[in-house]
User: What shape does this take?
Amino acid sequence: MENASEIIGRLHNPSIYGIFIVGLIVVVGFYFGRLAKKLRLPAIIGYMIFGILLGPSILNLVTSDTQSHLSFITEVALGFVALAIGLELDIAQLKRHGKAIILIILSESFGAFLIVFAALYLLTKDVVLSLMFASVAPASAPAGTVAVIQEYKARGPLTNALYAVVGFDDGLGIIIFGFAFAIARSLLLKQAGVHAAGTFAILLKPFLEILMSFGLSIAFWALFTLLSRKLRTSGEVLVLVFGFVMLVTGLCEALGISLILTNMMIGILIVNTHSKRLIQHIQDELPNLMQIIFILFFTLAGTNLHIGALPSLGLIGLTYILSRSIGLMGGAWFGATIGKASQKIRKYLGLGILSQAGVAIGLSLIVKQQFAGVGKILGYVGGNPFTEGDRIGTALLTTITATCVVFEIIGPILTKIALTKAGEIGEVEQKVNVDSS
Assistant: This one.
């Protein structure tokens, strides 16, 4: 029989340790979620708190190396979240408030961009810094909103509107970021007396990315249609859906295009073109899989929430949190009002779209990498030039990492409040109260 030291030694193998951590996350994370429910909070808050405990901030059981090994779980989870959003976007239902949805998406995205830019420019008088913070402000975290909706089995006009907004604003966010990034880079180069070459190509990139996402989604939808014709049981359909999400997500990562947009479009095409029987099969099986996915996704997200980053928020971080919240909620209200959406949507939709996480941090990381060495030289660090681009990239990534901790915690709570006030989870709340009494 092997001794304890040999067993512990094997746990240092990244693959074995990764399997162990996944099991730990699913089992213990599940009970953290139940504890959060008893406190009348969304289960995902419990998952994230457990993740924070596991992560570098406290116990460091999930190190940066482990996070890297398990990063594919996050991508796959986002793929399933995007597919779930798409499957809820029935065109016939959307037509009832189609114009309002478009106006809401435009208003909340540009509202966040403009308010954040104005607030940070008034604070810093730095155009490029303000532009970059504004460019990541529209980026949302659809997983948080979808998880709360599915946990409480919410149904109604606000729920339908939330699915559409958190799904489609990803595409608009990519375009806004692409334009702002190109303009900011040109300004940095101009300040340094360098001609900004390739600006048009940078401006074109987000449009090409969205076109590629649409093209890939149509191709995989056609293949799914062909392969699903002879499927008879819910289990068979789930196998095909699981495989397709994995394939599409992997291809999107390889091609550098939005896995959220692509998987969401496949879901939209399926729900609007396939038989009710097939769609029912998917809707019967997917929620069971989604619970495990949400436990893994949000616990791993929690391991990436560095509590130690909160002190670095400062005045810029607080201004960003306040101005982004005002821009999103005010923009959603404005779009819903001029689009003549229902009173529920006008009053409460803005509360459900505040979550922000991985996409915003990813965009900030792009800025840090692409702005490195760009612009005027401010000094030297270790013999290497530290430029204006380095300063902006570092400030953006540090601050957005800290603000995401705040948005990821308050976002799901506010989503639950919005759905409760709109009367779309009242029955489930009643059932939970009866069961727990």
Observations:
- The first helix runs from residue 4 to 11.
- Confidence is low (pLDDT under 50) at residues 427-437.
